[in-house]
Every structure is written in C-alpha cells, then in structure tokens.
Design brief:
56% helix, 15% strand
C-alpha cells in the first residue's frame, strides 16, 4: 500500500472514531456513562471532566449513579449536570448523585435521529475530502515523476475502494444509532 493511501486511511479511521464518539454523547432512552463524557466540573478553579472526579455507574437501564471521590464537589457536579444540554435533573442524598433517565418523547427521538444524520453526513464529507487530498497527493507525485501513470491509477482505485468502505462503515454506524434512539 502506498504511503499516501496509508495516511488517508489513518485520517478516515479518525473521522469514523470521531463520529462514534459524537454518537456516544447523544442521549437515548437508556442510561449510559458516555452521556457524561462532555460534562466538565468546576474543580478547585479548573474545569475537570466529570469522570476524573467521580465514579459513574449504571445500575439499571434508566438510572445513573455518580459517586464523587471528594464529597465537597457534590454541588459543583450537580450544577454541571443541570447546566448541560442533557436536560437531566440530578438528586443528591449527600453520598451519591442519582439521575433518573426519563424515556424520550417521539418528537425528541426524531430530533436526535436528525442530529445523528447530520453528524454522519459531516463524517461522509470528511471521508470524501480525505480522498480528494489523497488523490491530489498522488497527482503531485505523478507530476514530480515519483509515480508512473499506472501506479497512480492503481493507487487512485485503491483509495476509492478505501473511501467506499469507510462510507459504508459510517452508514452502518448511523443505522445502529438510529435503531438505538428509536427503540422504546
């Protein structure tokens, strides 16, 4: 495999992983520790990821329990969750914070699917842009005499197959997320 194609594949992998990470933050009707990945807690003047100041567990399908390592951060954690875009209402008993995940309305499910489709489209565009960059690199190598026309053509075909494979993976990831969101 040509180095330009290897570099393109690495970038495509990162693009797909970015989509998967973005989907992890999309709330479904089920509880998940990944929902809280983007939440930052004001911890002694620093914005610290929630999972670095507390243990997050999911004992039931619709319940999340957050146990802070420092009980003094209880109020800050609660405040961070309330002000997040998750629209969740935590309850604090002095030892742990419990968050009940309410079922999603049909309207909210459709909004989330639309959001997921937009993220997937951005990922597909990113993969196509990576293909374009790879083809530009191959054309430059051809022009500089570092590749023959046959090698450039073969590498270009290989890059197209790689692109098609990643587009399929993006679509499969989207399909899986849509099912998860629409599941009651």
């Amino acid at each position: 495999m040509h180095p330009a194609i290897s570099a393109s594949e690495e970038r495509m992998k990162k693009s797909l992983q970015s989509l998967i990470d973005g989907f992890a933050g999309l709330r479904t009707g089920r509880a998940s520790a990944a929902l809280f990945d983007k939440i930052r807690v004001d911890c002694y003047g620093d914005k610290t990821p929630l999972n670095q100041v507390a243990n997050i567990s999911v004992p039931e399908a619709r319940l999340v329990v957050i146990q802070p390592w420092d009980k003094g951060l209880m109020n800050e954690i609660e405040k961070a969750i309330r002000s997040s875009e998750l629209s969740l209402n935590p309850s604090n008993d002095g030892k742990v914070i419990r968050i009940s995940i309410p079922p999603l309305t049909e309207e909210r499910r459709k909004e989330l699917v639309k959001l997921a489709r937009n993220q997937a489209e951005q990922s597909r565009v990113a993969v196509r842009n990576i293909r374009r960059d790879g083809n530009d690199e191959l054309k430059k190598l051809l022009k500089d005499g570092k590749l023959t026309e046959d090698e450039e053509s073969k590498a270009s075909e290989e890059l197209q197959k790689l692109t098609d494979g990643y587009i399929v993976k993006v679509n499969q990831t989207l399909e899986k997320k849509e099912k998860e969101v629409m599941e009651v």
